[in-house]
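Hello,

I think I submitted the zinc ion job twice by accident. Can you confirm which output corresponds to this input? Input:
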Amino acid sequence: MSNVLVIKTKEKLNLSSLKKGSIHRLHIQLSDNSLGVPWRVPVIVVKGVGKGPVIGITAAVHGDELNGVSTIFKLLDAVDPKTMKGTLVLVPISNTPGYLMNQRFFLDDVDLNRIMPGKEFGSSSDIYAHFFITKIVKSFDYLLDLHTASHGRVNSLYLRADLEVKESRTLAYLQHPQIIVQKDDDEKTLRGWANRHGIPAITIEIGNPNTFQATLIDETLDGIFNTLRYFKMIPGEVQDFVSHAATVCDHSYWIRSQKGGIIEVFPELAEVVKNGQLIAKVYDVFGQVREKIYSNREGIVIGKNIRPICDSGTRVLHLGVNIQEPLPEMIPGHH
Ligand SMILES: [Zn+2]
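Support: Only one job matched these inputs. Its output is below.
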């Protein structure tokens, strides 16, 4: 007996047509490539048996950000559609051309996460983004968008979420992050589009690009299972991870270099740095220090540069600032 599954190719994701109590693996066709063939995005639908929300989980909107791919595969191993309620729509590779080229951007070197929701009549990235939204994302009730740091940088496990909006605050507090950054929706990100269109969304930044990091993936999964418990899609008690372990920041920004050369960055991830602390040195090509970079605020290290080659303006340290006390009631409606 062959064990190979036949994967169906569909024009559009139609959740109501899919059988309950089963896992469905589909290719959804988006815009055309230069062979005249549609880009096909792999979509896995876990259709439970009872009523519940549709939770969409997208990964690799930036094609080289892969921890979310493993997170989705592990989630898939652990859920049983015959007992689960509601629906999971899992998109392990959202930016298929970027994934094929092992790069962040789409084919035309555009960042898909800065042009959402795209345009039906626009550039190649616009059209792809448009169909990604209209054919896939519009079917979600909630969205968890999985990312990592960019090439040459490393991240902690952190969230970007608008904590002032109840639904996204709830999603944020259900996760198991090291750091939460309070952020209004950035214009034209997938999260921003979703939040403005009635699909509460958060961004989960899982470590480093181009790799699988088992510990961070497992912590991400803890948060996703917690989310499924909160929505009663699976049984069990909802955990309050945030008030025990997470640091909540008001906002974050990058400290950049002024000079170019060879850079060494000192603080560790999740380290709290003081105002005035030396965080990096830029050397010239003869080994002499050209620039010493100091932190200009107290804050927690969310991400850092690990690529020694440094131009003027290189992002050096991603600092979360205005660290806040965790709120006493972290998950609205739960104690
Ligand atoms: Zn990303």
